[in-house]
Amino acid sequence: MTAFLFTISFLLHIIAFVAIALLLKQLSQLKQHNHSENVIELLETYLQEIKEENRILQESVINNSLQDKNRTSKMSEQAATVKENRYMNTDEKNENYLVPEIAADDTTEMSLQAKILQLHAQGISDEQIAKKLGCGKTETELVIKLHNKNNE
């Protein structure tokens, strides 16, 4: 008789464990479903907030562009009046303007690099350029190499 009771007890335990496992599975599915709904709701609210911010930003951009157009039109009108005033003033100034005399003593001197490159273009060797200009041979070679490298 005890064997019979052990078997019935054993079967009842198995049925209870299966029932508990099924209930846990259903509970986890409900939690997961609720969690996914919460995530969807959260994303929808974020999306609505972003749409609202975009709408406000677009309105501000449109308002700023209209203000910029108004500013540029006002500035162009002011610039036109300033130009007209300048032209009127320059006509009066041109009558009283005296041309300054140009001094004939102004001389320009080529830099050492320009002289080296000019002589090199004429076909003079690096050593002769160095002797003629009173600088080092390596200096003339360096200037020529840098010039060739920059022109490539």
From TrEMBL:
Q: Which UniProt keywords apply?
A: Membrane, Transmembrane, Transmembrane helix
Sequence intervals crossing the membrane: 6-24
Q: Please verify whether the record's keywords include Transmembrane.
A: yes
InterPro entries attached here? DUF6115 (IPR046118)
Please report the name of this protein according to its UniProt entry.
Coupling factor for flagellin transcription and translation
Q: Which organism is it from?
A: Virgibacillus oceani
